[in-house]
Amino acid sequence: MFQGLIDLDTAIAVQMTAMPDTLFEQGVYWASGRAGRVDLVAAHKWFNLAALKGRKDAVAMRSEIAAQMSESEIARAQREARAWISAH
C-alpha cells in the first residue's frame, strides 16, 4: 500500500504521459482475450498508439492483428486511435 505523498500541483494524468510499454500492454490485453474476449479493433488501436510512441515491436503486432481484420475494422481502429490522441 502506498504511504507517500502525492504533489497534486505537479501531478500529471497517466493518459498524458502514457509510455509505449503501457500502450503495448493494452494491445496484448485485447489481443490475448484477457478481458474474456478477443477484441482485434481495440488491440490494433493500442498497438498503433504504442508504435506511434516508438515501440518498434508494436508495428509487427499491429500488422499481425490487421491480417485478421476487415478493412472496415482497421478503419474503425484507426479512427479510435486518432480520437484517443485528440483526447489525450
Explain this structure to me?
Helix content is 61%, strand content 0%. The chain is built from 4 helices and no strands. The chain starts with 19 loop residues before the first helix and ends with a helix.
Give the SSE order as H and E letters: HHHH
Number of helices: 4
Percent in helix: 55-70%
How would you name the oligomeric state of the polypeptide chains in this document?
single chain
- The rounded Rg comes to 15 Å
| Major β-sheet annotation | none
Distance between the termini: 28 Å
Strand content is under 5%
Q: Report mean pLDDT, rounded to a whole number.
A: 87
SSE blueprint:
Elements: H1 20-32, H2 40-52, H3 56-66, H4 71-87
In short:
This protein has helices at residues 20-32, 40-52, 56-66, 71-87.
Question: What distinguishing features does this structure have?
Answer:
61% helix; 4 helices; 88 residues; mainly alpha
